[in-house]
Write a structure and sequence with these properties.
14 helices; 5-stranded antiparallel β-sheet
Length: about 475
Amino acid sequence: MAELPTATVRFLVPAGPGYAHTGAADRAQQVALAVWAFREADTRGLTDVEVRFAVGGPGPARVGSGPALEIVGRVLRDGVANASPVLRASIGRITAELADSGLRWPAAALAELGEQLDAYAARSARHRLHRCAELLAELPARFRASGPPSLVLGTDEPAETKLRRIRLTALGARVSGGPGERRATVYFAGDGSVLVLNSRWDTGDEPVTGHDLGGRRVAGSALAVLAASNVVSETAVRSAGRALRLGTSRIGAMSVTPVGAAWDDLPSVVRDFAAAAERLADLPPKLIRPRVEAEDVAVVAIAEVRELGYHPGAQRLDAVIADARGAHARVTATHSGVCPGRLDALHRALASNPTQLSGALRRTGGELLIDPLAVRTEAGVLVPDLAADDRAGPLGPPPPPEDDPLRTALAAAESVLAEAAHRGLAHAPPTLRTRAGRTADELTAAGLRTTAATMREFAAGWTPETWTTAQIRVLTAAELR
């Protein structure tokens, strides 16, 4: 199987490229590129089970980095809280320039930063303080990185690729939103990768929950039906970030059937938790990875549910599941006012001898963490975000607390850096510098000396450059911890 920027090509018969399968409409071109990729891998002597490389030359010059980095510097100096309408308009213009230059991932990061600034100006719940700080570090990180431009910057990524007849298997849905709006993302496994279908509704003052959205129509079907179905479409289009559009015209028919046992046939079901954690550990830092929407969403096989408990203070449900080899992973879900039935539905599903679970996988502290999207039991596939608010009883006692000095020190550093970006380096109080120095001492005590050094340089210099270096280091250390 070859995962290309625009499509996935699977070779079904040895030495028979005529039997290759791809969902892209330009099949011949995609198969030729896939054959070229395998030949290049052989030439380079790459024999691992999974290899990743770029071909086709050094790529275009990194035009647009100057204005983009200048915008980041202005936001850091003035602060997210003080971003003017003129600055936000400049972000839109520079985003378009980056996209026109073929720099897909920096353009997407800058566009998201603009959305965050607009959300803060509108006092919207979509604004996330820590997410703003991550985006302000992502742009410089991508232009600093020395990796292949196609992976780091998204060069040569077409904006959209038309797909021919494609079969998609739903993996659940995520519902979010703030005052006056709701958003839903349905995840599909298809053609060797995971694609997402995004929808948005204006709700006004109506208190719409995830369960209420289950009856709303998406691509001609109810959201609750679509999130647990097999879909065959002849009019699908995927974007560079693996976002999906499904047509509903009569010319290009689309069929929707219950998902049934389709998860069993997926080629990427995770059955070895330890191997999955090792694969995630080998990936480049998230700040410079390709900006795809469902990067690590997968189905995992469950042999046993060992622990199940609720943290009242954090409003979080945690469970420990095990694979057939005895390795464990932690399932963690947080309460959302938009989805009041999420945790209770998830608790019931995990207590009913589930066989599989879909979710976003990540690795923290050597442990595999899963943010669940759907659970499969003998009764079928349950999507917690679309469940009704049916609180039958307590969710059980929480597991014992963890004493993790590394996590505590890194979280404190992230908090200081995020607050500095929010207030602005030119407007931050002196006490924030003191906190930055104290955080450096905590990182040193935890054994993270190099990360502590970048925090001390930031506290001493207090410039956008020292902030960026410290933020990149802290985020990467937290990810790889």
